[in-house]
Each structure stands twice: as structure tokens, then as C-alpha cells.
Amino acid sequence: MNGRADFREPNAEVPRPIPHIGADYIPTEEERRVFAECNDESFWFRSVPLAATSMLITQGLISKGILSSHPKYGSIPKLIFACIMGYFAGKLSYVKTCQEKFKNLENSPLGEALRSGQARRSSPPGHYSQKSKYDSNGSGHSSFVTSPAADNIEKEMLPHYEPIPFSASMNESAPTGITDHIAQGRNFS
């Protein structure tokens, strides 16, 4: 050993490098085409129908008296709000579909990053992530090894909270955790 800790498993495969997709990334022509296609489809097939539906429902609720209209501006503020919420709901509802389109691109660094899951976990190069405790590897133990010193540092950095006694009474005027039998146990005679 050379004195350095090796956190890799001995038989673990080293994944091929994933291109860094950051703010300075310039998309390819095919990726630009998919971006434009996703933007158009999410607008016409999701945002417009959801915005119109939410506006119709809002207007129906206002006309039935369930929602009140503004004394000066009428139903316009609530309709604008419903339209904006419907628009964003439509855009957000199309994200998964758009991600699948990018994953299906052949020679796309962005598609490769989405396929490998880099978009969900942006870890620095050389960082080895801990396996989830829900992974079924049979042993139930994590393959990530920590030293006792690392455990101590973690315990020091996390705040330590004392448990607060539970009060079964619904009386909010008395402080929680103080009982009468302690105060009654003293004799002041």
C-alpha cells in the first residue's frame, strides 16, 4: 500500500468519461432541432390546452360564486393567474417526454449524459458515490468504506438535539415537559 485510502471496489468497472454538460455547453444541430421541437410541442400540445382548461374552470367557478371576483378588475386577475399556472404545468408535464427524445439521439453528448444519469447527480470527477441502502446486493452492507475518524467528523458537524418530552395535554398555557408531581414533591415548610 502507498498510504492512501482506496475507496474503489477491487473488481469495479471504471465507467467511461461522460462529457461535462454545463452552462458553457454548445448543443449540436440535432440537439437544437430537438430543443425547438420540444418547445413547440410542449406549447401547442400541453401548455395551450392546460391554460385554456384552467381558465375555463376558473371562469366557471367565478360564475357559480365559488370563487369571488375582484371588486375593481372582475375575474381578470384570477383568469390570468390560471392561464400562467396552466402554461407552466404544460411545460413541466412535457419534460419527461423531451428527455426521452434526447436519450434517443445517437451521437449526442447531452443524450449520453441523460442516459448515464448525470443530469440527476452532478458529482465532481473522481468522486465515488455511495450505494443506496435500498440497493439489493444481498449482503445489506454498503460497499463504501469510511474510517472512524470520518464518522467522528460527521458526528461533530451534525447538530445534536435533545428530545423534547411529549405533553399529552392540549393545554398550551403550561410549558411542555414540566409536570405537577415534581413541583408538588417539594416541601417549603
Automatic annotation (TrEMBL):
The keyword Repeat does not apply. Keywords: Endosome. Residues 129-146 have a biased composition (Polar residues). Residues 24-109 form the OCIA domain. InterPro entries: OCAD1/2, OCIA_dom. The keyword Ligase does not apply. Residues 113-146, 169-189 are annotated as: Disordered. Signal peptide: none annotated. It holds the Pfam family OCIA. It is found in: Endosome. Belongs to the OCIAD1 family. Interacts with OCIAD2. Interacts with STAT3. This is OCIA domain-containing protein 1. It comes from Ceratotherium simum simum (Southern white rhinoceros).
